[in-house]
Structures are given as structure tokens and as C-alpha cells.
Amino acid sequence: MRDISEHLIQSHADRRFRSEYDYALFEYYRSAKVLAFLDRAGVEVHGRVLDAGCGGGGMPLSLAEHADTVIGIDPVNRFGDAGVALARERKLSHLHFLQADGMRLPFADGSFDLVLSHAVIEHVEDAPLYLRECRRVLAPGGRFFLSTAPYLSFAGAHLPRLKVQIPLHLITGRWIAFRTFRLLARYAPWTLKEPAHENSFIRDARQGIWKHDDLLELVTVSRLRQQIADAGLRIVREELHATSTVRRMPAAIGQWLRTSTLTRDALISNMEYVLESDHG
User: Do both 110 and 225 map to the same domain?
Assistant: First the structure.
């Protein structure tokens, strides 16, 4: 598995909004963390692999370094000027991209040994259907990698951060917070912590785009666990990563905050799963 280079991840993160090509390169280097998780979980990247929401195509590019065949799908052709170009540059003839809907996958049952869904399910209109489709195309003994974040999380709400550290979405609710950040990005960007090149709200405001909220599934830990079970999937491994604030606390307190139903959805920054079909 490829080593995780925080330097390369950060350097590409700083310029990821310049183009889809730059974003795909950022995804490529960041995907080393996904590969490391799969390695810890004992999941081998091999055979036929599907990235069920590939965006610009950086993740499939990384997977193609290990698997026999990799297909990346996305409902929007973000990969056309990014993943396709990168695959051509690196002469990866076994990497393919397809514009398709994750809720209606155009593949036969049992087509893939590994399915990946990285930060996708929160943007899906019908999460239960999406999970059922991913399970349907899993081959017997196949594995399904899923990552997302609780919508109430400080780090995972897909919202900017204020320079004054106030969790606005926890105080006002998401609807008001989203519209407040949209106005701040247009009229007072200096109030936001992320610089313009790292902030899609500011980028869209400068381009005259009235940004829409694409968070369609309000993920919580308990809700996602139930959706996984209802889709006919079983959890093989679950890692709930706490925010840096929790990690700095005494271990016992941090463990309670991370697991308590009262606090976990706000204090978990990322959730990673390895799943398998419960039908064999």
C-alpha cells in the first residue's frame, strides 16, 4: 500500500479548487488514508472494483494501482477532464469511468469484489436505495467500504468555519447556518476561517453562483447503522474518528463523549466501515 504523505496531501489540498484535474490529484494522494484503513481491516484491493461516487476520479486512479479492473461512476461528469486525463497519462487501460446514478447501478448482480463509497452517501437523495444497490453488485465474499460523517459534526457538516469558533449549525440549525455562510462568503469573507482557495462558498460567491446545499442525507451514527442493516449488509469493521478536541481529552472522558448518544454525532469527525452482505 502507498505511504501516506501529509505533505503531498496538504500541498494538493491548497490548490484543489483550481480545476477538477487538481481536485482529482488531491483525491489521489488523500486516498492513501483509505487504503491504509482497508489494510488495517484486512481487505485486499484486488479483482473488480467499483467506486460508487468517484467525483473527479482520484480515488479510482489510486485503486487502479492494485486492482485488475476499476470502474468509477458519478452522476455528474466531473471525471471527464480529470480522471480520464490522468488515466490516459498513466496508461491505465483497466481504469474506466461512467456517468451513472448510484441508485440505479448499470451492473449485473455480483459484479464487483470491492465497492467503495467515500463521502458520498450524505449527498444521495435515497440513501437506503443506494446501499441496497451497492450490496446488490457485491460478489459473494465481497467487501463494501463506506465513509461519511454525522451532519452535526463540527468537522463533517460540509460547512465553512468562522474565525470565532462558534458551531453555528448546532445553534441555529443547518438551514439558517447554510444561508448565513452563503451571505458571509459573498459580503464578509474575512469572517470565515478557511482562505478563499479552500472555501467553495467563497469561490462560488466570487463566480456569482448562488450555492445550493447538496447535503441530502442527514447522517447520524444510529441512523446509518440501521440503514446498513436494513439494506442487507453486516458491519465487519467500524471506526468512529473523534475530533481533535476529543483526542486531547483524558482517554476515559474522550471515550465516553465519542460513544454517548448525547454527544457522538457532534464530536465524531469521520466514520469508516467495512461491510459485507448478510446473505453470504
Answer: yes
pLDDT classification of 81: cutoffs 50, 70, 90: confident
Mean pLDDT of 111-122: 97
User: Whole-prediction pTM value?
Assistant: 0.92
Residue 40 shares a structural domain with residue 178: no
CATH code at 41? 3.40.50.150
Asked if 228 and 199 sit in the same domain, the reply is: no
133 and 186 share a domain?
no
Question: Are residues 114 and 50 in contact, defined by beta-carbon separation less than 8 angstroms?
Answer: yes
Instruction: Return the bridge partners of 277, or none.
Output: 233
Asked if residue 242 has pLDDT above 60, the reply is yes
Domain assignment of residue 50, given as a range: 6-150+216-242+269-277
C-alpha cell at 260: 454517548
* Residue 177 and residue 144 share a domain: no
In the sheet that holds 138-148, the strands lie side by side as: 95-99, 69-74, 48-52, 112-118, 138-148, 268-277, 233-242
* Per-residue model confidence as pLDDT tens digits over 178-209: 999 999 999 999 999 988 777 889 989 998 99
pLDDT tens for residues 33-72?
999 999 999 999 999 999 999 999 999 999 999 999 999 9
Total domains in the fold of the chain: 2
